[in-house]
Amino acid sequence: MGRGGTTADGTAGAGAELVPVLDPRAPVRAGAVVVDVQPRARVRAGNLPHAATAVLLRDGAGRVAVHRRTTTKDVYPGAHDAVAGGVVCAGEDPDAAAARELAEELGVGAGVLLTPLRPVLRRWYRDDVTHYLAFAYEAWVAPGTELRAQPSEVAEVWWEPAVRVRERLADPGWAFVPDTRALLAAWPDWWNDPGVPDDR
Fold first, then answer.
1. Does residue 173 come out as left (phi exceeding 0), alpha (psi in the -120 to 50 range) or beta?
2. Domain limits at 48?
3. At residue 31, does pLDDT exceed 90?
C-alpha cells in the first residue's frame, strides 16, 4: 500500500504534494476531519495523522491481488501487501484517491472493474512510521485480468487464493506490511469472496 510512502530517493517529487492533516480524536464515522495541510514530506517526517486508502482487489474466483513492495520504498520496503492504496491528497476525496492508486499501482482502471469500488470499513492505524485513517474498499475484475505493476513502487504482483493469504498471515515471520495485517484482522471474513455485487 502506498500510504504516504514515497521512494527513498524521492522519486517524482512526491514529498512536495500537499496532504491534509487530520484530527485523530474525531469519531471515525465523521470521516476525515481536516485541521491543517502540509507537504507530504513533512507529514512523513512528523508521522502526522492523515487519510489513506486500501483496495482489496478480487478476481471473482477466490483470489486476491498480492504484491511485493520495492526495496526503495521508505515505508515497509520489500514487504508483501494485499491491498493497493495510498495517501489522500489535498482536494481529493477517498473514493477518487482509491481509484487513482489502484490504477497507478496495479494498472486497474475504472474501465476494467466489474463494479465501482465498494466501501468496507474505516479505521485508524498508527505505528512508528505511519499514522492514518484508512478508507478500505473491495473491488472485482474478471478472472485472468492482467495486473501491471508500477515499477517505482511494486516489485511484482500476482493473484493468490485469499485463503492461502490468510494462512500465510498466521506466520508472523512472513514479511507482510503491519498496517494491512491490522486492517485485515479488523475485516470479518475478508478471505471469503462474497461475489460480485448485484448492483452493477
1. alpha
2. 11-185
3. no
Domain membership of residue 22 (yes or no) is yes
Residue among 46, 50, 44, 1 at smallest CA distance from 21: 50
- All three cell numbers of 151: 515499477
Residue where the block lists cell 492504496: 85
- 61: burial class by Cβ within 10 Å (0-12, 13-18, 19+)? exposed
Residue 194: inside a domain: no
* Residue-level length of the chain: 200
pLDDT at res. 198 = 75
Q: How confident is the model at residue 3 (pLDDT cuts 50, 70, 90)?
A: low
CB 88 within 8 A of CB 135: yes
Q: What is the pTM (predicted TM-score) of this model?
A: 0.91
Mean pLDDT of 123-131: 97
Question: How many CB atoms lie under 10 A from the CB of residue 39?
Answer: 15
Q: Decide if 198 is inside a domain.
A: no
Three-state SS for the chain is CCCCCCECCCHHHHHHCEEEEECCCCCHHHCCCEEEEEEHHHHHHHCCCEEEEEEEEECCCCEEEEEEECCCECCCCCCEECCECCECCCCCCHHHHHHHHHHHHHCCCCCCCCCCCEEEEEEEEECCCCEEEEEEEEEECCCCCCCCCCCCCEEEEEEEEHHHHHHHHCCCCCCECHHHHHHHHCCCCCCCCCCCCCCC
